Amino acid sequence: MSTAERSANAAEIRAAIEDWAEAMREKDTGRVLSHGAEDCLVFSLAPPLKASDTGAEGLEQWFATWKGALGYRFQDLDISSGDDVAFATALAHLSGEKQDGAKVSLWYRQTFGLTRTDKGWKIAHLHESVPFYMDGSFKAAIDLDPASQVDWNAPSHPPMAGVIAYLNVEDADATAKFYARAFGAKEEDRKYAEDGKRLIHCHLTINGGALMLNDPFPEFGFPWKPPEGFVLHLIVDDAHSWWERAVAAGAEVTMPLEIAFWGDYYGQLRDPFGITWGIVSPVKKG
């Protein structure tokens, strides 16, 4: 293939991808799907792991979760083509307002596989992805942008012992501040989403153990749900002092602190965010 032919192919492919992106911005389902080849394969950010782009229902349902037009643009769009197949890579930026008022601004990686048909270049494969943090949290790194840098010489976090609770709470910042007042929590780390408001990760240390928090991200399949069916236990030396501090901070008593049938002090509290805590300590011998 000559250089001129490659340039012509690249121009046609770029025009097709840009028109596809414009259809995404306008939430035009038919126009989006018109750029797909038959049996187009999609590896999107949303579940499942593998999907087909041949149906309109799912895309229309997703478009309906947004208010108004979408922000959608590419950076570093790079195209390589042969006679009948091509691929293109880019960083994509998606922005807009969800129906619940949540503001979204997200950079992610996008790859197109294209095939030439009698109707022009069509998208045969679409792949979207984000990296995840390698600190043991396995949280999606949705706070990155093209200018983000990684310090590969930074020391890695040591492994943490035991099982660590990771709570999806309505307001992670307020929750962390309350736990500092109620349970003496020390904040070790926090990472914000690109909106600068929601926390995608907050690491607390309470009573020597780790507790992780994050805000809900319904646009990525992690909505908030009322907590139920579990209790966070604090096994401490002095149950009374821990209890009094938590109650003074605003925790609600749901089970009085008293000597339990097995011989330890035990009681339960509910924090303002609906999480139930158990406080336990051995009865000190006189």
Automatic annotation (TrEMBL):
InterPro entries: Glyas_Bleomycin-R_OHBP_Dase (IPR029068), Glyas_Fos-R_dOase_dom (IPR004360), NTF2-like_dom_sf (IPR032710), SnoaL-like (IPR037401), VOC_core (IPR037523). SUPFAM superfamilies: Glyoxalase/Bleomycin resistance protein/Dihydroxybiphenyl dioxygenase, NTF2-like. This is DUF4440 domain-containing protein. Transmembrane segments: none annotated. It comes from the Bacteria. It comes from Sinorhizobium glycinis. Residues 160-282 form the VOC domain. Pfam families: Glyoxalase, SnoaL_3.
